[in-house]
Amino acid sequence: MASVQLNGSSLVASLSPNHSFSHKTKLCNLKPSFLRSRHNATRLSRAKTIRAISTAPASQPSVADEPVDEPPAVDFAFVHSVLLPDGTPDVHWRRACGGQKLRDIMLDSNIELYGPYSKPLSNCAGVGTCATCMVEIVNGKELLNPRTDIEKEKLKRKPKNWRLACQTKVGNPDSTGLVVIQQLPEWKAHEWNIPKNLPNDDDSETST
Predict the structure, then answer these.
(1) Has residue 58 been placed in a domain?
(2) Is residue 162 part of a domain?
(3) pTM (whole model) above 0.85
(4) b/e 175-208 (16+ beta carbons within 10 angstroms → b)
(5) How far is the C-alpha of 88 from the C-alpha of 82, rounded, in Å?
(6) Running DSSP on this structure, what letter comes out for residue 144?
(7) Residue 149 lies in a domain
(8) Is Iron set as a keyword in this record (predicted)?
(9) What is the DSSP letter of 128?
């Protein structure tokens, strides 16, 4: 079976109808005396006929390109705590479906979350007891759930826009929008202002 990918979309056309091709040749067992006769030679040429059992199917029309609707997703701009060599923020763009914990989205997208606490047994693995997964919500807080009781206790001396990624749920499966997040806010050694019009990164990666 062969398949053809159409323009990078999930639309795949299968081009393998189950056709079988078989041909039979009808031959006769002839004696030498029979072959010497011209008349019989004519009959022999008629006997050696090929009968087609099935034929090749007619060429099928090419499958037209069909637009594929992408599922709803939330865009993320993760800003690292260290600036780039030219002094500009180091922004990493990602895209993920809503309804997930921010911690899971960051880890699945290879975004640094724990900093010096990333080693095994250095964090609580997402149960909310260590408070090492702190992030700063710069933009898009309306897409997030309110602070949980755990966050209110662990972050009572932190700015109101600081969250624990393990306690933060990003919208619903049908949510769309943009969330800008400062990674490792405790280790941030610079200040920056969010641009009015953030660029749309074509290299965004999707996490499910």
Answers:
(1) no
(2) yes
(3) no
(4) eebebbbbbbbeebeeeeeeeeeeeeeeebeebe
(5) 9
(6) B
(7) yes
(8) yes
(9) S
